[in-house]
Predict the structure.
Amino acid sequence: MFKRTFVALALSWLIAIAPITSLSQTVIKMPKNKYPISKDIELGRQASGEVEKVFPVVNDRDAQRYLDNIGRRLVAATPSQFRHPEFGYSFKIVHVSDLNAFALPAGYMYVNSGLIMAAKNEGELVGVMAHELIHVQLRHATAQATSMNNPWKQILGIGSVLGGAVLGGVTGVGAEAGAQLGQVFAAGYFTRYSRKAEKEADLVGAQIMATANYDPEDLANMFRTIAASGGDHPPEWLSSHPDPGNRYNYILQERRSLRISPNAIRDTNEFQRVKRRLQALPKAKSMAQIEQEMKNQQGQSQTAGGKYSSDVPLPSGRMRAYSGGEWISLNIPDNWKDFPSQTEVQLAPEGAYGDQGITHGAMIGVSKGHQGATLEQESEEYVNGVLQGNSYLSRQSNYQRATLSGRNALAILLSGRSPVTGRTERVTIYTTQLRNGDVFSFITVVPENEESRYRGTFNSIMSSIRLRD
Ligand SMILES: [Zn+2]
């Protein structure tokens, strides 16, 4: 009798206890990090300076005050061991159309106007901000670098490494100088967080939302809003913040362990007012467009020393080897010069380059890829960027299959009246994917009425390209 009672009691204890343990909130510890806090501060400060040179910060006091207010409340809601009083948190809106937000080490957070306009309510905006804030507070950028063999490659992103150090290394542009473009995209856009970091940011993000009187369900909902915005193209935000799997469900699971106020804020008049103010601004540019314009500017500054001529010498029949470090080599006519910038190299003869880029020649380049994207999707994104940055061009063909360095590639023909030569220009873009998911492009440029004289040269350059990434 006594024994049976004991068993029954033990069972009831189990029954009573089990749901409670499964409903306690997940405890996250600071990840291992061998870098001092000052490294986060230094990285964040440098990168934020670059970011603000590239992305237009919205100058609207009302909207700014609104975002500051949310940011401050979220910081106050974080566990004190994550708060790092040395961090100088700032929250800014950048006028960019993509649904994206990013935060640099030490708390420089940028939210795209496109994301605010797409968020269904304040809770969804707060969800993304909470998630970004936790990446900063858990120091995920430097923590991730801690577990890498070559941390700076990771922090600065492979894009800047290819662009700045590898291409630049051969031609004398040091990695340091190469950081300009690389770092901007690196710091926010090129950091691909690990799945572990993503889950931590989701879970602690949900916890601080509840503390700040929001409902973490809106964090889960925001991921759906972002995913739905991409159409058939994976949105940029999901590319740098990959879904660890089951994201929506585990956030709702975590939510069950949290105390959600019955008066939790879902939406506010202020949010809707800020949204209207942003909608009233001139149309925002996309990331791809801004990136392309920067590349154009950089390309043009590299070639600015040249003078355009109506008498451009034909490509020499003799070729010379050109290499961008270990990972790429190709042959170009020996009367062509090379103009490397951070993410591309322009190749052109005398008389065909100047302050508006090249009129005859070729280009090779590397752009950031999107996780999980197909070659078709990447090519479309890249070509759109080129079209947005060179408004005189338009598509003349569909994509054709091609081969670049033994890999599947796509080719498309663009043309339009060149503002430099006044003649119809043919631009052919070949794209393929690198092993890390980035996009390699090879572009040929020539006036239409000279195309037949360049065809052989373009073919031999293309067949000489070797990628060893
Ligand atoms: Zn993330």
